[in-house]
Design a protein that fits this description.
The chain is an all-alpha fold. Helix content is about 95%, strand content about 0%. The chain has one helix and no strands. It has one helix at about 1-55. The chain starts with a helix and ends with a helix.
Amino acid sequence: MPSMNKMGWQEYREAMIAWNEVACTRKPYWKRTTEHWIGRLMRRKHDRVGERLRATQ
């Protein structure tokens, strides 16, 4: 049982190292996409507020 656990930990460490490498190389891409989606969500919310204001006036 301990050997199984150790093997899993080694695989986990290797996976984390690989993920960190990918995250470092792809960071600008992820930042751009998240900012893009946040911007779209915020714009949609503002558009809805603007439509509501126009409807009441």
